[in-house]
Amino acid sequence: METMTISSRFCGPTNTGNGGYVCGRIARHISGAATVRLFLPPPLETELRIEAFEDVVKLFHGSELIGEGRNAELDLTLPLSPSISEAKKASKSYLGFTIHSFPRCFVCGPLREKGDGMRIFAGPIKDSSVVAAPWIVDASLDKDSRIPDEFLWAALDCPSAFAVLPVAEGMTIVLGQLSACIYGSVRAGEKCVVIGWPIHVEGRKHMAGSAVFSEAGDAVAIGRSTWIEVPESAFPAEKAE
After folding, report:
1. If phi over 0 gives left and psi between -120 and 50 gives alpha, with beta otherwise, what is residue 110?
2. According to the 3-state scheme, what is the secondary structure of 202-225?
3. Environment class of residue 129 by beta-carbon count within 10 Å: exposed (0-12), middle (13-18) or buried (19+)?
4. Who contacts 15 (Cβ-Cβ below 8 Å, separation ≥6)?
5. Statement: residue 170 has pLDDT above 70
6. CA neighbor of 192 nearest in space, from 83, 64, 78
7. Residue 156 gets which letter from DSSP?
8. What is the mean pLDDT of residues 60-89?
């Protein structure tokens, strides 16, 4: 058992942790590919408790179960990686520049400054269901000369959401589950490409894939996410201007 605290820097919605980042923190305790399910919004600047068992890792806030992770098998067929220039062009049409439920999100919030947020703005590739963005890995994410895996988990999060947006009128989506496999690492200053694509829909659940490619075009991390429609009134949309 150990404790952890989610810094307010790593928010998704204003008062809760970014789902991908939190899933990655839980997955630290799992060897190989992992799947993490979130049950409640993870609070910020609050001591949380991690309990690691033989085949499951659980994150608690007091007696409340926030998230649960376990080993997984992840079988995805990846789209081809766009080039950096293609990703830059796609990013100019990022939906979040117009309206964004969480414009201060650590990963995809347009109101976050360079050196603070990850600023991954995934927009549509022409004649494709894929969204893509460049990601320049900021030096502030470096810890002991490496970028911790939870930031790769974070990078897999939001692009998959924008692959399935917009949803039904009056609704938004929140991350319910993220499965990921980390194949390698990235370096501070590296220019990566991040993509997301829709897989299928089951009622209020939207499944999507995502991947992080290195500057050389190698898949560094892949993910499969489940997004759940919730009333937009639960997280009022803000103009991202």
Report:
1. alpha
2. ECCEEEEEEEEECCCCCEEEEEEE
3. middle
4. 41, 43, 44
5. yes
6. 83
7. H
8. 96
* 122 contacts 86 by C-beta, under 8 angstroms: no
Quick: pLDDT tens for 38-53.
999 999 999 999 999 8
**Rounded distance between C-alpha atoms, residue 148 and residue 206, angstroms:** 28
The Cα–Cα gap between 171 and 133 comes to: 24
Cα separation, 8 vs 161, in Å, equals 21
Euclidean distance between CA atoms 228 and 214, whole angstroms: 29
Could you tell me the domains of the chain? 2-71 (3.10.129.10), 84-234 (3.10.129.10)
As given in the structure block, the two tokens for residue 120 are 């991954």
What's the pLDDT at 171?
A: 84
Sheet holding 2-5: strands in order across?
A: 2-5, 47-52, 57-61, 64-71, 34-38, 171-182, 219-231, 205-213, 191-202, 131-136, 123-124
Q: Which two tokens stand for residue 189?
A: 């200053």
User: What type of residue sits at position 74?
Assistant: L
Distances (CA, A) of 134 to 33, 90, 233: 24, 9, 31
Phi, psi of 50, deg, nearest 5: -105, 130
Checking if the pLDDT of 137 tops 80, the result is yes
Structure confidence by residue, pLDDT tens digits, 80-127: 999 999 999 999 999 999 989 899 999 999 999 999 999 999 999 999
Query: What whole-number distance in Å separates Cα of residue 83 and Cα of residue 9?
Result: 30
